[in-house]
Amino acid sequence: MSAPFETIFGDTSELRVIQFLLPMNGLEFNISDMARGADVSRQALNNVVKKLLKWNVLKIKSKHGNANYYALNENSGFIEAFENLNNLIIEQMMGEETLAEIADYSPECCIQIQPVEDSSPSN
Fold first, then answer.
1. Cβ 97 vs Cβ 104: under 8 Å
2. What is the set of domains in the chain, with CATH numbers?
3. Which end of the chain has fewer CB atoms surrounding its CB within 10 Å, N or C?
């Protein structure tokens, strides 16, 4: 199965990097780790990082020696939009039956919504 973004938007270095980083929110990566994880060349990744920093999708989280370590900018509205879009695409790719099977298999991880009883006085 191809990655969710790739299914609709094609295969670009930017999408590969975002797709790699979304489930790693809060973790930081240097250029080499990101390139390996996203299956993008270091040369291509340097351009992607510049672009994503400019758009406030990435931020420099820390610096070790001469190496910058990057993470998703969780304060960026883009990240929330990417996560929502990613989830919608996955839901569409998997289908309702598969999602129901997952929910049935692992109910303890899912939020259970209980109906609220009406406590207002009746007339």
1. no
2. 4-109 (1.10.10.10)
3. C
Grouping H, G, I as helix, E, B as strand and the rest as coil, residue 30 is: coil
Q: How far is the CA of 89 from the CAs of 19, 57, 58, in angstroms?
A: 12, 20, 22
Nearest residue to 72 (alpha-carbon basis) of 48, 56, 50, 89 = 56
Q: Is the dihedral of CA 74, 89, 4, 12 positive or negative?
A: negative
Look at the block and give the residue holding tokens 């930017």.
Answer: 14
- pLDDT number for residue 64: 93
Tokens of 98: 């598969």
Here the tokens at position 104 are 């049935």
CA distance 113 to 121: 24
47-69 tens-digit pLDDT: 999 999 999 999 999 999 999 99
